[in-house]
TrEMBL record:
Stretches assigned to coiled coil: none
Its EC number(s): 2.6.1.42
Species name: Halorarum salinum
Single annotated GO MF: branched-chain-amino-acid transaminase activity
Pathway: Amino-acid biosynthesis; L-isoleucine biosynthesis; L-isoleucine from 2-oxobutanoate: step 4/4; Amino-acid biosynthesis; L-leucine biosynthesis; L-leucine from 3-methyl-2-oxobutanoate: step 4/4; Amino-acid biosynthesis; L-valine biosynthesis; L-valine from pyruvate: step 4/4
SUPFAM superfamilies to which the protein is assigned, alphabetical: D-aminoacid aminotransferase-like PLP-dependent enzymes
Gene Ontology BP term (one): L-valine biosynthetic process
Family annotation (InterPro entries): Aminotrans_IV (IPR001544), Aminotransferase-like (IPR036038), B_amino_transI (IPR005785), BCAT-like_C (IPR043132), BCAT-like_N (IPR043131), BCAT_family (IPR033939), Class-IV_PLP-Dep_Aminotrnsfr (IPR050571)
Physiological role: Acts on leucine, isoleucine and valine.
Pfam families in alphabetical order: Aminotran_4
Keywords in alphabetical order: Amino-acid biosynthesis, Aminotransferase, Branched-chain amino acid biosynthesis, Pyridoxal phosphate, Transferase
Name of the featured protein: Branched-chain-amino-acid aminotransferase
This protein's record includes keyword Electron transport: no
Catalysed reactions, as listed in the record: L-leucine + 2-oxoglutarate = 4-methyl-2-oxopentanoate + L-glutamate; L-isoleucine + 2-oxoglutarate = (S)-3-methyl-2-oxopentanoate + L-glutamate; L-valine + 2-oxoglutarate = 3-methyl-2-oxobutanoate + L-glutamate
Length: 311
């Protein structure tokens, strides 16, 4: 039985201001967001910590949720406090100690012109158990990635710093191309041919003990886990260059590479295309930062307690 099948038996979802049975959380087939990708969302993790269940950087995710709605003139219609209580209630009612949380807002059912017109904005919060996104083994041994033939859309074409549902078609194409060719994930280049990001992850490169990650001008999402890794690295004395361009060739000559993301957490990359990165395993810098990340989110440290919302 899949996780979703289990949740459908007795789980609940918050939809437009009320808790409803998981199986009843439906939408019309002529919903605007289904046809045109006019939705925004977040992916957030809650961890089972030594201090109880805690949502990691909920306030920052909530900030981005509201910011993502702005380019689409989308009115969320619920306050931060309402969405916070909805999320806490979803975790409690589903008896989840650790979970992946999905807030989403989208233009709903009313008309099907490209303009959403008077379409309502539907807002939903769901949560379910979800382990390591790319697999537990990947966290230790790293993954093989393929540089995708699909390019990342430019910020001059669509708002790349908004987490928009429709834009993830680009991610799907890149990721599935990689998996069809025997790789776990993809790296997507931007229109200039420089490294942008993974389908759902930011990219970090380690060279000579320094850390590099593409800047926001490279058409990337301003990842919250990315910002966390940068903070943890700087606190440990690493020099971090977070506003650079990284060429495709630099991937091949990196000492270490790793992904970061709410789903992927901190996942090492051991191979790009047919090139082995470093010694073909998780590198020492990646291992240190990964350990610091999990110590943080599982609350084995007192650092950054303000980043957590306890359930």
């Amino acid at each position: 039985m899949t996780v979703f099948e289990e949740m459908a038996e007795n789980g609940v979802i918050w939809q437009n201001g009320e808790f409803i049975d998981w199986a009843d959380a439906t939408t019309h087939v002529l919903t605007h967001g289904l046809h045109y990708g006019t939705g925004i969302f977040e992916g957030v993790r809650a961890y089972d910590t030594e201090r109880g269940t805690a949502i990691f950087r909920w306030e920052e995710h909530l900030d981005r949720f509201y910011q993502s709605a702005k380019p689409y003139d989308m009115e969320i219609g619920h306050s931060r406090e309402e969405l916070t209580e909805a999320t806490l209630g979803t975790l409690r009612r589903n008896d989840l100690e650790s979970a992946y949380i999905r807030p989403i807002a989208y233009y709903g059912y009313h008309s099907l012109g490209v303009s959403p017109g008077d379409c309502p904005t539907d807002v939903v919060v769901a949560a379910w158990p979800w382990g390591a996104y790319l697999g537990e083994e990947a966290l230790e041994n790293g993954i093989k990635v393929k540089v995708s033939s699909w390019r990342k859309h430019a910020s001059s074409q669509v708002p790349t710093n908004a987490k928009t549902t429709g834009l993830y078609v680009n991610s799907l194409l890149a990721g599935e191309e990689a998996r069809r060719n025997g790789f776990a994930e993809a790296i997507v280049l931007n229109k200039e041919g420089n490294v942008a990001e993974g389908p759902g992850e930011n990219v970090f490169l380690v060279r000579d003990g320094e850390i590099f990650t593409p800047g926001l001008s490279e058409s990337i999402l301003d990842g919250i886990t990315r910002n966390t890794v940068i903070a943890l690295a700087e606190e440990r004395g690493y020099e971090v260059h977070d506003d650079v361009s990284i060429s495709r060739g630099e991937l091949n000559t990196a000492d270490e590479l790793f992904f970061s993301g709410s789903a992927a957490e901190v996942t090492p990359i051991r191979q790009v295309d047919n090139v082995t990165i470093g010694n073909g395993s998780r590198g020492p810098v990646t291992e240190e930062l990964q350990g610091a990340f999990f110590d943080l989110v599982e609350r084995r440290t007192d650092e950054h307690d303000d980043w957590f919302t306890y359930v």
